[in-house]
Amino acid sequence: MSKKVSVWADGRFWQRSAAWVTGVAAMLLIWLTFDTMGQIQMGTKAELDQGITKRVPSPTVINHKITYEMNDKRGHETPVIGEKEKFFGRDDYSEEEAMALLNLGKLASQTKNCMNCHTLLGNGAYYAPDLTKAWLDPNWESYMLRMGKETKEEAIAEFLQHPSDNPSNERMMPNLGVTAEEAKGLVAFLKHMSSIDTNGFPRNFGKIEGGIHGR
Amino acid sequence: MFSEFTDIVPSFFGWLNQGPMTLTLFLHGAIVLPMFFIYKQEKKRLESEK
């Protein structure tokens, strides 16, 4: 009864298939956009104080100690926000003060075009070290010793203002004329960025020599 | 086949992204399976034509 037909040679089959796949993919992308927007929303100080985990915590995270610990359940390292820790001698930055500092640092990073060499949250170049978790780099301790600084933030600020006096590797960072205030903002920006849950990016941070030093 | 939900934010896409198996099942369910129906419909239509 059935006659021989070729569906594969039929234009309507391909049109309908294409329309279906495009339609489903478009709906998924729209859904994904709204799903992501909720997840990348910055947290508040109240949430941070209550220990509610957010992918992007409140800027007041600069009042806390941040570590990067292996999470066996998730299979990669995650930022862990710990107890209070002094940042440039203070651990009581309000949400507004911390946000102002972070904004200053972000604007400074854009003005000085850090991404021209460095990577920030996956954006930018891989000529110089990835800065996404730079605050957590254990090498700052050797800088503290070399520079005679008491704290990590002071050592980073000093490095940012006088990079050519403190060579880190053979690809020396140029002197960009960063002011003391900008350096403070940049360190706050780096500290906050290191507290962002990036699903383990950069991979194996702290284990691969080249990943940190750009060598 | 299915691993425990490990993402920090419970969401549909977090569940979908747990491994290649969940993604494969979803994409085949949502895209490939309906295409079989389209194929069958078109075949029926072509057979009934003329």
Topology of helices and strands:
The complex is a heterodimer of chains A (215) and B (50).
Chain A: H1 11-39, H2 45-49, E1 64-71, E2 76-84, H3 95-111, E3 119-120, E4 123-124, H4 140-147, H5 152-161, H6 180-194, H7 209-213
Antiparallel strand pairs in A: 1-2, 3-4
Chain B: H1 12-16, H2 20-48
Keywords (chain A): Heme, Iron, Membrane, Metal-binding, Transmembrane, Transmembrane helix
Organism (chain A): Aliarcobacter trophiarum LMG 25534
Domain Cytochrome c (chain A): 100-194
Please explain how this structure is put together.
The complex is a heterodimer of chains A (215) and B (50). In chain A, the strands form 2 sheets. In chain A, strands 1-2 form a two-stranded antiparallel ribbon. Mean pLDDT of chain A is 90; it is low at 210-215. Chain A has helices at 11-39, 45-49, 95-111, 140-147, 152-161, 180-194, 209-213; strands at residues 64-71, 76-84, 119-120, 123-124. Chain A starts with 10 loop residues before the first helix and ends with a helix. Chain A has 215 residues and is mainly alpha-helical. In chain A, 41% of the residues lie in helices and 10% in strands. Chain A has 7 helices and 4 strands, in the order H-H-E-E-H-E-E-H-H-H-H. Chain A is elongated and about 90 Å long. In chain A, a hairpin with a 4-residue loop joins strand 1 and strand 2. Chain B has 50 residues and is mainly alpha-helical. Chain B contains 2 helices and no strands. Chain B has helices at 12-16, 20-48. The longest helix of chain B is centred in the C-terminal third of the chain and has 29 residues, at 20-48. In chain B, 2% of the residues are buried. Chains A and B meet through helix 1 of A and helix 2 of B.
Residues in β-strands, percent of chain B:
under 5%
- Parts with pLDDT < 50 across at least 5 consecutive residues of chain B: none
The average pLDDT value of chain B, as a whole number, equals: 86
According to DSSP, the number of beta strands of chain A is 4
User: What is the N-to-C order of secondary-structure elements of chain A (H for helix, E for strand)?
Assistant: HHEEHEEHHHH
The portion of residues assigned to helices of chain B is: 55-70%
| Rg result of chain B | 17 Å
Question: Which structural class fits the helix and strand makeup of chain B?
Answer: mainly alpha
End-to-end gap of chain A: 73 Å
The H/E string of chain B reads: HH
What class, by secondary structure content of chain A?
mainly alpha
Largest sheet of chain B: none
The coarse overall form of chain B would be rod-shaped
